Amino acid sequence: MKVILTIVLILTSGVVSAESSLPDLEKTIKAANGGNVIAMHYLCYQYRYGDDFEADYKKAVKWCEKTAKSGDSDGQTLYAELLQYGFGTPVNLEGSVKWYLKAAEQDHVHALYMLFFAYAEGIFVQQDFNKAHYVLKRSADLGYEKAKELLKEIEDRTKAKV
Q1: What is the pTM of this model?
Q2: Which CATH superfamily is domain 1-99 in?
């Protein structure tokens, strides 16, 4: 859904060529360099996943970092993911958790879900099972299916032990 919304926003922002329904890369880069957060996020996402053009993790890092710093929770989460897995940059778990926390402040469901693991394992945050449960439940309550599934699995295991 977010990809569709991003494409719709790109299509209406004047960075699409007349011959194609795909954004014109030069115009998109120009718009992103001019501070257009929609264009920055599009470049971040596309360089990360390579849907419209070839993935390039180093370029993804550049655009995801800019998008993250603009305050966009999707960009913050994508940037955190790049840092976590070392895509286009050395692994940086501390930086990853920092950006997941920023996105979670805006109720980004995937960021909340990823923070569950940070709190449960004590990865660059103090290990705290109550916070781990809180962020997982928050993500589930906001509709994130992965969080719902994990929460149910944890609850089922807990009931089985009692």
Answers
A1: 0.84
A2: Tetratricopeptide repeat domain (1.25.40.10)
